[in-house]
TrEMBL record:
Native source organism of the sequence: Cinclus mexicanus (American dipper)
Gene designation per UniProt: Pcca
A GO biological-process term: lipid metabolic process
Name of the protein: PCCA carboxylase
One Gene Ontology term of the molecular function aspect: propionyl-CoA carboxylase activity
Keyword ATP-binding attributed: yes
Domain ATP-grasp: 35-105
Length: 345
């Protein structure tokens, strides 16, 4: 809600915050997939009535619990912005911090309730320095040896207070950043979030990006079938990480083998000139064994120009990329499908 010192108050639509672990929010979005316009209006009007009853002025957050029949119950009011306020800013176009400052200065609100839109969809993931394989996230400490935010991805916002070289200590909340993506609809916002998570580079501490990415692509989440019990219901034995499909396993093996061969070829050159040959310089095919998980897989690689033809399990995959081995992120095209690969050395 947003209220001034002149008796005016607005409700700024809802935020869906059901994806939680240990009663702490992990993924938020606006609007909610569950509410209908009538429930939204009733909830908003009650929130405004509360703000006016206590003569509240500033931005604030009224929290409700909603049951499966769309009955809602007042939980509490936070007399401040909350961590997920950027998703409200995305769909309404309001700068909530600016509005808070104007209200504190004594200015009346500049908008009427009819002016407040729901324009598009926004999703926020809380990126934490924590191990998601332990109780869905126990804090991790250390120095950020490498840190690169995915700001090159369209319609991405990152609110953070750290940089490469920063220390994550035991004395503060282990949140690294708030990662927000926006789209004209939910599907677009989630697709951009998937891309943003894939392009986020964090080294030096454990982090929860693997869990966040699994949540936003899970069929139940994509369908909007969510509740505060989502994580324990979907992962009753705890989060174990992503389980590779056969195609993903082949693609990963092909990429790893191609990257290895590209590095070997690069190491044979010095300032653009071939080194003293220590191996056959005209070699164009390799027989490799790639260790993945608990298995070792035979992989055959042949080079043709800037691309590689890789045979895995009797299937041939074409791998193309500009191998910038100094970067932890590689954009790889495998049989026409583009993927972002993070290289950990």
């Amino acid at each position: 809600v947003l209220a001034d010192k002149h008796g005016n108050a607005l409700w700024l639509n809802e935020r869906e915050c059901s994806i939680q672990r240990r009663n702490q929010k992990v993924v938020e979005e606006a609007p909610s997939t569950f509410l209908d316009p009538e429930t939204r209006r009733a909830m908003g009007e009650q929130a405004v009535a509360l703000a006016k009853a206590v003569k509240y002025s500033s931005a604030g957050t009224v929290e409700f619990l909603v049951d499966s029949n769309k009955n809602f119950y007042f939980l509490e009011m936070n007399t401040r912005l909350q961590v997920e306020h950027p998703v409200t800013e995305c769909i309404t176009g309001l700068d909530l911090v600016q509005e808070m400052i104007r209200v504190a200065k004594g200015y009346p609100l500049r908008h009427k309730q009819a002016d407040i839109p729901i324009n598009g969809w926004a999703v926020e993931c809380r990126v934490y320095a924590e191990d998601p394989y332990k109780s869905f996230g126990l804090p991790s400490i250390g120095k950020l040896s490498q840190y690169q935010e995915p700001l090159h991805v369209p319609s991405v916002r990152v609110d953070s207070g750290i940089q490469q070289g920063s220390d994550i200590s035991i004395y503060y909340d282990p949140m690294i950043s708030k990662l927000i993506t926006y789209g004209s609809n939910r599907s677009e916002a989630l697709k951009r979030m998937e891309e943003a998570l894939d392009n986020y580079v964090i080294r030096g501490v454990a982090h929860n990006i693997s869990l966040l990415r699994e949540v936003i692509v899970h069929p139940r989440f994509v369908q909007g079938d969510i509740s505060t019990k989502f994580l324990p219901e979907v992962y009753p034995d705890g989060f174990k990480g992503h389980k590779l499909t056969d195609l993903e396993r082949r693609q990963l093996l092909a990429t790893a083998a191609s990257l290895y061969v590209a590095e070997q070829l690069r190491s044979q050159r010095f300032l653009g000139t071939a080194r003293i040959p220590i191996a056959k310089s005209n070699r164009s095919s390799w027989e490799l064994s790639v260790h993945l998980g608990d298995g070792i897989y035979p992989v055959a690689v042949s080079k043709d120009g800037l691309s590689f033809s890789v045979e895995v399990d009797g299937m041939k995959l074409n791998v193309t990329s500009e191998w910038n081995l100094a970067s932890p992120l590689l954009s790889v095209t495998i049989d026409g499908t583009q993927r972002t690969i993070q290289v950990i050395s």
